[in-house]
Design a protein that fits this description.
By secondary structure, this protein is an all-alpha fold. Helix 4 packs across helix 7 and helix 5 crosses helix 6. It contains nine helices and no strands. The longest helix has 40 residues. It starts with a helix and ends with a helix. The protein folds into two domains: 41 residues; 157 residues, no CATH class. The radius of gyration is 21 Å and the shape is globular.
Length: 201
């Protein structure tokens, strides 16, 4: 009777270890399916955002793993992964508000128009933007031109990129809290700074 029990215990870890692999494959299949569907039904402004978002998400994971190892808490990796996912998803309603007719005065319209205008110049090596200065909103126009030169004219992709930058601002705030107030309730602070609805949006 003891032998079957040992056999079952040996098989259990094998099945458990296949869980992340199966989950990852399902995510890949879902992503590819949505990507192909959008390619057939929308323009690059929409479907081009998917690979941009995926790349930004993937390149962030090693940083999360390092931070989790630094704090000695494996759960932190999944916490930060989920926080980034929410932050990126928050760019979708923000894009809809700016371009769905709900808020016609959104500054993002101007920034993306300038980005589309400057990107071809930057790709050709011409960085003369025609802007009088590179301060204030002119810097955002110039920087959006660089972003578009890298990712192409996908408005939603640009929203993903700026949302990703915003996430790292939140992450650095969390790191600053850890260093400045080591005895503080850092998990409570993390929940507030990463999951406050206005900061996700």
């Amino acid at each position: 009777m003891a032998i079957p029990e040992i056999s079952q215990r040996q098989e259990a870890p094998s099945r458990a270890s296949n869980g992340p692999l199966i989950g990852g494959l399902l995510v890949v299949v879902a992503f590819v399916s949505v990507f192909l569907l959008l390619m057939n039904s929308t323009g690059y402004d929409t479907w081009g955002a998917l690979p941009v978002g995926l790349i930004l998400f993937v390149v962030s994971l090693p940083i999360f793993a390092r931070q989790a190892a630094r704090e000695g808490d494996k759960r932190l990796f999944w916490f930060l992964t989920f926080a980034l996912l929410l932050k990126l998803l928050g760019a979708i309603p923000r894009h809809f508000v700016a371009f769905g007719g709900l808020y016609v005065g959104a500054d993002a319209r101007d920034f993306l128009q300038w980005g589309a205008k400057l990107a071809p110049l930057f790709r050709s090596g011409n960085f003369h933007s025609g802007l009088p200065t590179l301060t204030s909103t002119n810097f955002i126009r110039f920087f959006t031109g660089i972003v578009y030169a890298l990712i192409g004219p996908t408005g939603l992709g640009a929203f993903f990129f700026y949302s990703w930058l915003g996430f790292w601002g939140l992450f650095l705030s969390y790191r600053a809290f850890l260093l400045a107030v080591p005895e503080g309730r850092h998990r409570t602070y993390a929940r507030l700074v990463f999951f406050l609805p206005s900061l996700i949006y």
